Amino acid sequence: MIDKLVAQLKHARRVTVMTGAGVSAASGIPTFRGDGGLWRSFRAEELATPEAFERDPAFVWEWYEWRRAKIASCAPNAAHHVLAEWSRRSPHCTVITQNVDDLHVRAGTERLVRLHGSIWELSCWDRCGVAPWRDERVPLVDRPARCVGCGGIARPAVVWFGESLSAADMDAALRACACDLFIAAGTSAIVYPAAGLLQHAKACGAVTAEINIEPTPASGAVDLAIQGAAELVFPQLAAELPRLW
To answer: Fewest C-beta in 10 Å: which of 134, 186, 204, 226?
Structure first.
């Protein structure tokens, strides 16, 4: 299957890769749905919601402070570096990520589409009008964090369960689906609307592929399903493509 994917990469002019939590797992970042996905006795689906933040912003920020400290101690892995290199070498390679850790950013990925925002950016909970700002301090000075505009409570500038994706980011992702090859890597392909991008790319005529350590609901629907860790598979692909695109 890797040989078949290499053949597709060699002939594809436009390539889009969508990454999920599995791509960052090798960097030491726990996934939402794995054994490391628990924090205390809570699941992410119980904490990453507007309702949870409204009930207890300090408690939700405690979780995000734990996550920020965990991510700060991690570094991009081989998969991040390969994708960053591809994005730099070809303006027709787009990386879409569901991850909020910004390891793609640290690896130097260009034209990155961050569907769910960034854990390193904050926004005003009261929507006072100030634009989201970046704050990489660990820990933050105030807990809960405060808005740099109005002084009210700030929230992580991420997309929580039950919230809509940014229209601009979704438009960019849909445009990237008009490609020759669409690869979903390290994602369970069950969270919409991101999961629908794979189907949309296929409907647009793209060859679709999946790279994941275990079968997912998308495995039977893609043209090529490779069972393996992203941090191992992407370097294998890169080694076969000395002059990509």
So the answer is: 134
